[in-house]
Fold this protein.
Amino acid sequence: MSSGASSVFPLTFKHGFYILSPFGQACPNGMLLRAADKIIRVIIQAGISMKELQIRQGVATAVLCLLSVVASGNAYAQTLDDVLGVRASTTQDGRASQQRIDELSEQTRDLLTQYKQVMKIVDGLRVYNEQQERLIRVQEKELGQLEQSIDNVTVIERQIGPLIERMIANLEKFVELDVPFLAQERADRVAFLRETFDRADVSVAEKFSQVLQAYQVENSYGSTLDVYTEVIAIDGVDRQVEMLKWGRVALVFQTLDGETTGVWDKNASGWQILGDQFRLGVRNGFRIAKKTQTADFVHLPIPAAEAQ
């Protein structure tokens, strides 16, 4: 009977399950199925009928499957709690990690801002350094030129001394040959230049500057109108007259009573008395020079240009 029960109710093991062939049901718990198998074998040996055995075996199998499901549910519940606990822990760890990431991101932004500010300062310093380098190069070039000029100072001083002396001599000669207006003033100027030239306490640059100023004054006489009083000899008699210098074109005089009018004759190197036809023109020239009359045409004796 034992062999018959074994052939009718075979227990096989597939993929970790014990299977009862007549019912075709599988229970996931291997230990429970093995215990059920022992119980069934004991019942068969006790002489229980086949029908009762099948009924009892089906009930036992259902009970065992239910127990297996309950055990599996407990295991699944325990596994789910573990999973939820791991997930909660993972979530908390993720929250902490995200907070750390946010802090690092904020620090990174701060560092980036500081970096940009520093780079702006660096760019400004780079431009400033380039400008200073250009200025230094220009100054070095000027310094070289100054050193070369200093080396040539001695040579220049030796050459400029004779030049100043020649300029003074030429100016004196020019005054002697020119129309004799402001004769005393111009002669005193030349004498002052000669006196300054012989002074050791006056620099060469100052001497040269004074000579240039004298030349500029002489040059300005050719484009100005001047009126002044002077004593000249007329027919051997010294008389005080009013002089009119019309540039370097004409130098005329008129006595204070207006009776005598004359002009400097360059060819004769003396004064020439004019007729009454020039008296009014010379008087108007005095008025224009004194700015008591508006500028106008005047009748003055002008010497003819000499043929070359």
